[in-house]
């Protein structure tokens, strides 16, 4: 396995990458709507999804006794991120229009599952 793939499979690095990608998702979404106060706005948009992300990591860790650094466990992380993120957004009166749910689901799938798929591909190629 390449050094990069091995580094990305380290739980701390993988978790921080997931957090960064959720923040990028929120930042791009806010920028596309030209909303004010970029830092607080991004955190305001991202927090429900970050809670979902942490929940997904905890579910995988407790049920599988491993870290969600591979594609399969990443599906649980992605699903939890979207589901809990949308439930929390709804609970605090933020938007959950079906178009937002769809876009968030697709973008977060590409982000959270994409890097895991690339790492798995690199590991198979190196083997």
UniProtKB/TrEMBL annotation:
What Pfam families does this protein's entry cite?
DUF3054
Q: Which UniProt keywords apply?
A: Membrane, Transmembrane, Transmembrane helix
- List all membrane-crossing ranges: 12-33, 39-59, 71-92, 98-123
Q: Does the keyword Nucleotide-binding apply?
A: no
- The question of whether Glycoprotein is a record keyword is answered with no
What name is this protein filed under? Membrane protein
């Amino acid at each position: 396995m390449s050094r990069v793939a091995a580094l990305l499979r380290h739980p701390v690095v993988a978790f921080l990458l997931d957090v960064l990608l959720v923040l990028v998702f929120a930042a791009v979404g806010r920028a596309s709507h030209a909303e004010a106060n970029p830092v607080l706005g991004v955190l305001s948009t991202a927090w429900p999804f970050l809670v979902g992300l942490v929940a997904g990591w905890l579910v995988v860790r407790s049920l599988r006794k491993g870290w969600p650094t591979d594609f399969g466990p990443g599906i649980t992380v992605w699903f939890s991120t979207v589901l809990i993120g949308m439930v929390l957004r709804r609970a605090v009166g933020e938007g959950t229009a079906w178009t937002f749910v769809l876009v968030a689901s697709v973008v977060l799938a590409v982000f959270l599952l994409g890097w895991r798929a690339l790492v798995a591909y690199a590991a198979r190629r190196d083997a």
